[in-house]
C-alpha cells in the first residue's frame, strides 16, 4: 500500500528536527562540499512569497575565507566560529525581482517590485530569513548540527563578501557535528496558552 503523502513524520524524525535539536556552541568534524550542495538542494524547496527566493548563501570553509570573516565577528562568537567546519553567511538580494521572470513566470511579478530598492527590502529580508530557517532544518535533516547567530558586523561582512552586489547579510549559521558536553542546559519555551490562540 502506498504511503499517504501527508502522513506525519515519525517521532524520531520530529525529535531530530525540533524536540531534541539544539543550538551548538562547539562544532567539529567534517562537512563535505557534497553535503553542502545536498543541503542547498533541500532548502531551496521551502516556500517564499511569489517564489522570490532572495536568499544568497556563502559557505565559509577555507582558511582564507575564515580569515576574512574573523575580524567581523563579535568577541563572543569568534572562537567557536573559527573552530566550526563551515560558517554560512545568509544574505538576501535586494534586487531579487530581476529573477522573477524565471522563478515566477505565471504573471509579471517583476513589475510588483520595480522602483526604489527600499520598496523591496522588507520582502527580501523576510523571505531570506525564512530561507535561513529552512537551511537550519535541512542541515538537521542531513545529520548536521547548527549554531545560528547574529553578533557580527554586517557592514564589514557585506564589504568583504558582497562588495559591489545588491546582497546584504542577515545572520550566520555554524555547521558541523556538535559536542553535547558543551551545551548549556536547555532553556524553556512558552506554552501554547501564552504564545498562541485559536481564533
**CATH domain fold name:** NADH Oxidase
Q: In total, how many domains does the architecture comprise?
A: 1
Number of helices: 8
Outline the biggest β-sheet: 5 strands, antiparallel
The end-to-end distance, rounded to whole angstroms, is 38 Å
- Assigned CATH superfamily: NADH Oxidase
Assembly level: single chain
Mean pLDDT: 96
The structural class is alpha+beta
Q: CATH first level: which class?
A: Alpha Beta
User: Which outline best applies?
Assistant: globular
| Spans of at least 5 consecutive residues with low confidence | none
Question: If classified by CATH, what would the architecture be?
Answer: 3-Layer(aba) Sandwich
Q: Report helical residue fraction.
A: 25-40%
According to DSSP, the number of beta strands is: 5
Q: What is the chain-wise order of helices and strands?
A: HEHEHHEHHEHEH
Q: What portion of the residues fall into strands of 2 or more residues?
A: 15-25%
For the CA atoms, what is the radius of gyration? Answer: 18 Å
Amino acid at each position: 500500500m502506498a504511503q499517504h503523502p501527508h502522513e506525519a513524520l515519525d517521532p524520531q524524525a520530529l525529535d531530530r528536527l525540533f524536540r531534541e535539536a539544539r543550538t551548538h556552541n562547539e562544532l567539529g568534524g567534517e562537512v563535505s562540499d557534497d553535503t553542502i550542495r545536498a543541503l542547498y538542494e533541500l532548502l531551496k524547496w521551502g516556500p517564499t512569497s511569489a517564489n522570490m527566493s532572495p536568499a544568497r548563501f556563502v559557505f565559509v570553509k577555507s582558511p582564507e575565507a575564515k580569515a576574512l570573516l574573523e575580524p567581523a565577528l563579535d568577541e563572543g562568537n569568534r572562537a567557536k566560529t573559527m573552530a566550526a567546519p563551515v560558517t554560512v553567511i545568509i544574505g538576501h538580494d535586494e534586487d531579487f525581482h530581476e529573477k522573477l521572470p524565471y522563478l515566477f513566470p505565471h504573471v509579471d511579478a517583476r513589475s510588483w517590485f520595480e522602483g526604489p530598492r527600499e520598496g523591496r527590502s522588507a520582502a527580501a529580508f523576510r523571505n531570506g530569513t525564512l530561507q535561513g530557517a529552512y537551511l537550519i532544518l535541512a542541515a538537521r535533516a542531513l545529520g548536521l548540527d547548527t549554531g545560528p547567530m547574529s553578533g557580527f558586523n554586517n557592514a564589514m561582512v557585506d564589504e568583504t563578501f558582497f562588495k559591489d552586489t545588491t546582497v546584504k547579510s542577515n545572520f550566520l549559521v555554524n555547521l558541523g557535528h556538535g559536542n553535547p558536553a558543551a551545551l548549556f542546559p536547555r532553556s524553556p519555551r512558552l506554552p501554547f496558552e501564552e504564545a498562541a490562540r485559536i481564533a
